[in-house]
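Lay summary. Proteins are chains of building blocks that fold into shapes, and those shapes determine what they do. In this project we predict the shape from the chain. Here is one chain we studied, written as its sequence of building blocks.
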Amino acid sequence: MAVSKIKVSFESNVQKIWEIVTSLENYGWRSDLDKIELLNDKQFVEYTKAGYPTHFTVTFAEPYKRWEFDMENDKW
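And here is the predicted shape, written in a compact code that computers can read:
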């Protein structure tokens, strides 16, 4: 199983950054995506420009601190 941990620091308002990064409706800043399909409040699917899906299940969310999820796709 692959595990990825990413930590980044921004010199900006934490609420605004959280809103942008976790928005599943306004993902225009993600140039790699064609669309995001919302399945329910914990699951969604991201589709690449080539139509390749990655399934996400949110496992933990602590607003302004942590957003954890499991990811699945056939490619990785």
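What the prediction tells us: The chain has a mean pLDDT of 91.
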